[in-house]
Amino acid sequence: MRRVLAGSLLALAAVAACNSDQAATVRNFTYAREFRYYDEQEVRGAMQRMSVAVRQLDALLKTDGAPPETQQQEVVRLLTEVDAAARALRSPQRASNHPRLTENLDAFLAEVELARASAQRTPPNYYAAGSITGSCLHCHAPASAR
Ligand code: HEC
User: Fold this and answer.
1) Residue 74 burial by Cβ neighbours in a 10 Å radius (0-12, 13-18, 19+)
2) How many A from CA of 131 to the centre of ligand 1?
3) Residues paired with residue 95 on neighbouring β-strands, in sequence order
4) Mutate which of 47, 87, 133 to test ligand 1's pocket (most atoms within 8 Å of Cβ)?
5) Is the CB of 98 inside a 6 Å radius of any atom of ligand 1?
6) Angle 2-16/23-30 helices, nearest 10 degrees?
7) Which of 25, 37, 82, 104 is the most buried (most CB within 10 A)?
8) Nearest atom (ligand 1) to Cα of 102
9) Residue 16 has pLDDT above 50, yes or no
10) Residue 64: its pLDDT value, please?
11) How far apart are CA 90 and CA 5, in angstroms?
């Protein structure tokens, strides 16, 4: 009886696989609880969000003449955006289908936090904010190494 039940659950899971909304249901059957499964779309979405934010950040820091308070608010907002996108990928499980990501995310988040804290100070210090793209290298090899 157990076997029959397990069989029909698997069949159900297979049906659910056709519906992307229910992909999570299937993963619950397929992967152990200790395993974090990252959806490609989820990782890409977060990376694209971070790319847009760091590009805007670089542009902002290069621009002269913005009112200091506006500039500070914007720098902090963009770093908060990077932080939120990255934080959504955090995983308490150590094993995942993106081990590089799981292992390096906390180091990256710590640097984003530091950059944000320095930018929030009075007077602000944007040194760490200006070099945040360097922190992407925790996971991405520098162009020179490719
Ligand atoms: C903790 C690890 C990690 C950090 C830090 C990180 N990335 Fe990624 N990034 C990944 C992974 C994993 C992928 C998926 C592709 C792969 O395996 O290289 C990816 C993919 C990307 C992509 C391709 C997205 C697509 O549409 O396919 C871009 C662009 C990107 N990252 C930009 C950035 C930028 C900009 C930063 C820094 C603000 C950054 N990443 C920091 C792990 C990371």
Assistant:
1) middle
2) 16
3) 35
4) 47
5) yes
6) 140
7) 82
8) 1
9) no
10) 85
11) 34
